[in-house]
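Many introductory courses stop at the sequence. We go one step further.
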Amino acid sequence: MLQRIINYALYGDTDKENYLSIKEKIESSNRITAFVFASVATILIGIMYILSYSQEGFASSKPVYIFGIIFSLIQIVVSLLGKKKSFLTYVSVYMAISVFLIYGIAIATLTRPEEQTVTFMVMLIFVPLIFIDRPVRMALFLILYIIVFIVMAYRTKSGSVLSVDVTDAVIFGLLSIVSESVVYRAKIKGYVLENQLHIMSETDQLTGLNNRNCYEWRICNYAELYSRSICCIYIDVNGLHELNNTKGHKAGDEMLQYTAGIVKKIFGKRDTYRIGGDEYVAFVLDGRQDDIKERISEMNAQVIEKGYHVAVGYEFVDHKGVDINKLIIEAESKMYKDKSEYYKKHDRRAR
């Protein structure tokens, strides 16, 4: 029960692993929203500031408008910097919420203390729903502003206006905290589901490696991903067809799973793909050629320990401007030569 409460308060009723898998997406969404909010706030508050020179109803709020414009401009800068420093994304989120809540408090307590508050209550309910952050942190932040409002109300208001505003602040504050946590949970669940579907669409279900779809989506990016060198390793499992015919497809699947596990251990999962029935491709970025040769030898040794064998070809380039398709073709061609040498020594029927 305690763990469920912790997961709800921190991770939107999911767990830490799922939350971390979508954290970057949450930050990106918040960063864009904060930037748009700050830009819109700057324009709207600027319009009200201009109107304050011709409309008597706006004139008393000039200092508030000036503060809002300056605060929003600062927030625009912070949200742009959030792309490089992730913690600034959360700073921009709470600045975006703050500019509206402070504006609501100032209007209610400094410029129109004799009237019942509407602006602050609307901001309190609406603004937090726009962003995504942990319910416990958002709740503490909203409680802080509710306390600030109540303190300011006691200093500037009196009578029935004061009692109504304080009561409304407490009620609407609790409603805001509850509704924000419910919306947050729904958004997090949606992001987690989207992420899981994306992983499934890119993952080979038999081996757990990246699949052909993922390979096709990423392949054009590799020319820009390395700094010094890039190597393509093309791997083909020898004897799959013969093993399927003699011992069944379960035995063939076990061979593919074992081989894929070795390939993933040697070259890592991120840049390793199963692109066909018995074919794997791995990329090594900014590695040394002698190190890659050692890793290939280690892979071969571990595969042979199980009684299996793979044909391997690799192509190494240590300059920029590589043609990725040509790199892969060269590696594949060398793999076929290695495969041909294997079958010169091992009759397929004997397998």
